[in-house]
Design brief:
The protein is mainly alpha-helical. The protein contains 6 helices and 5 strands. The strands form 2 sheets. The chain has a 3-stranded antiparallel beta sheet with strand order 2-1-3, covered by helices on one side. Strands 4-5 form a two-stranded antiparallel sheet. A hairpin with a 5-residue loop joins strand 4 and strand 5. The chain starts with 31 loop residues before the first helix and ends in a 57-residue tail after the last strand. The relative contact order is 0.11.
Length: 278
């Protein structure tokens, strides 16, 4: 005889009917995934994705600031040692700098929305909020980066440095502060359009004519096929076609049509028998 591997007072850990320990684990705490509902897990996933999108869009503001510094027109100034004047009083360079920033922000917003939709393939309020917040932060970062890397904002010191009658560039400034929202507006519009055209869609219910109480026709969506009913309509009570009934309609009582109609009256006389000697 061999001794049992498991003592009788100590249950085997592989028995399916073993009662779990109090607390759900060796640490005395239940697993985290058992406490979270599917909605909470989806919300955590959406928040994580929105944070990643917001951070990536904010970092992309560095590229916007460098492009704005490179492409924005410069405002020429000139000094006569007593004051600083515009070299071209009818120039539109100041407006051009604002327009360049706005156009670049619109382009960055469209590209960022397309990339966000390409990687996630879904919509959601949280993702759109992260995209919009990242657009605002990226625009502010680009604005500050462009103004700090551009010409100095100390115009008097710069004029004294270059000398009298020498044209120099004015500091790069963004006068239209509304351009800071261009990135976010373009990103939300493009993302909404892509989600409407290529996003996942909910299945549409099947519509048909059904018979309600009393045999009245009812027009509307049919029951879900997963509920066990046929999408063509509710089942009708009655004998099954396989039970012997004709699919063309209910059976009729009486003789078969192939036997012909029955005639009422005395039976027809039988023909006489031929004579025996013939």
């Amino acid at each position: 005889m061999t001794a049992p591997l498991t003592p009788p007072h100590q249950p085997s850990p592989h028995e399916p009917w073993q009662t779990p320990q109090k607390g759900g684990g060796p640490g005395g705490s239940r697993p985290r995934n058992l406490l979270e509902s599917p909605e909470e897990r989806d919300l955590r996933t959406d928040l994580r994705r929105a944070g990643i999108v917001c951070a990536a869009v904010t970092v992309a503001g560095v590229a916007l600031g460098l492009l704005w510094l490179w492409l924005a027109p410069r405002v020429p100034l000139i000094s006569d040692n007593t004051a600083v004047f515009l070299s071209d009083s009818e120039g539109e360079e100041a407006i051009g700098a604002d327009g360049t920033f706005a156009l670049l922000a619109l382009a960055f917003g469209a590209v960022s929305a397309a990339l966000a939709f390409l990687f996630h393939r879904r919509g959601g309020v949280v993702l759109v909020v992260g995209l919009a917040l990242g657009g605002v932060l990226g625009s502010v970062l680009a604005w500050q980066l462009g103004t700090r890397l551009g010409p100095t904002d100390d115009v008097v010191a710069h004029a004294r440095e270059v000398g009298k009658g020498v044209i120099f560039d004015a500091p790069l400034e963004l006068h239209a502060k509304g351009a800071l929202l261009a990135w976010s507006l373009a990103a939300m519009a493009v993302h909404l359009g892509l989600t409407a055209m290529f996003g996942p869609r909910d299945p549409e219910p099947e519509w048909g004519v059904y018979h309600g109480p009393g045999g009245a026709p009812v027009y509307g969506a049919g029951p879900s096929p997963s509920a066990g009913s046929s999408p063509a309509g509710p089942t009708q009570s009655g004998p099954s076609p396989s039970a012997g009934s004709s699919p063309a309609g209910p059976t009729q009582s009486g003789p078969s049509p192939s036997a012909g109609p029955t005639q009422s009256g005395p039976p027809a006389p039988e023909p006489p028998a031929p004579p025996a000697g013939s």
